[in-house]
Design the sequence.
């Protein structure tokens, strides 16, 4: 998978992309990152990429010129299309595990990170990008949302985490929160691991995990069950 990130703040990305599981996926040549620095596409002698909004008001706006030039150069240089560009904005569609499963099927991911108050509206009008929000709160830019999406997608690529089954049992993978987990020791500060997990009976253990996942979801996020008829059917049959 090739992952392109268009940003005015490339250094915000470098640390997280150079650690842990993401770093290993690069070393294993499963993913390759291309960071495009918007400032290199500014004709301003100070490499400015932002300006004041017409009509006044607080905050700065990313100028159209560096963004247009950067996108055009990326399309010309790499095998990507404008329809693959994802713009990160709190005004986008809410991100979810379902979207992560959709994105992991793509060969290219291309992210455009907004910053400051936003981008010149002509960028959105012209490029007609898919727009994603990672939640109903406002961050200073799209760089952290891009990292959140990249992390959640990369871990779904076979070979990235050592046991894909562990992604398949994640919270949300089947529309439910994940069950509780325990590791050694069996008793810690007088708190014991549930006996069933020590029984060696895998059918019973799986059953317990399912039930705990339902109980937890019902308590913490009941709307996940109510919004998903498959789960309601499974809940009835348990
Ligand atoms: N940029 C600023 N806030 C954001 C959010 N919540 N999601 C995506 N991009 C953003």
Sequence:
């Amino acid at each position: 998978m090739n992952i392109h990130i268009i940003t005015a703040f490339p250094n915000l990305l470098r640390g997280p992309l150079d650690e842990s599981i993401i770093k290993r996926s690069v070393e294993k040549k499963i993913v390759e990152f291309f960071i495009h620095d918007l400032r290199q596409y500014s004709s301003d002698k100070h490499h400015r990429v932002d300006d004041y909004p017409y009509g006044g008001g607080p905050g700065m706006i990313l100028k159209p010129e560096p963004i247009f030039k950067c996108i055009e150069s990326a399309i010309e240089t790499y095998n990507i299309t404008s329809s693959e560009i994802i713009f990160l904005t709190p005004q986008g569609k809410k991100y979810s595990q379902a979207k992560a499963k959709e994105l992991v099927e793509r060969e290219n991911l291309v992210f455009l990170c907004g910053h400051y108050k936003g981008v010149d509206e002509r960028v959105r009008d012209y490029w007609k990008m898919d727009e994603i929000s990672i939640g109903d709160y406002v961050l200073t830019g799209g760089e952290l949302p891009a990292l959140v999406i990249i992390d959640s997608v990369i871990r779904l690529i076979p070979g990235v985490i050592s046991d894909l089954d562990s992604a398949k049992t994640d919270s949300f993978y089947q529309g439910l929160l994940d069950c509780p987990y325990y590791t050694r020791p069996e008793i810690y500060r007088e708190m014991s691991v549930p006996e069933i997990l020590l029984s060696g009976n895998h059918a019973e253990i799986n059953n317990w995990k399912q039930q705990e996942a339902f109980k937890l979801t019902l308590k913490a996020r009941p709307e996940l069950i109510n919004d998903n008829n498959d789960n309601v059917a499974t809940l009835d049959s348990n």
User: Anything to note?
Assistant: Residues 88-90, 114, 133-135, 137-139, 141-142, 145 surround adenine (CB under 6 Å). DSSP finds ten helices and ten strands in the chain. The chain has two domains: 2-154, 169-236.
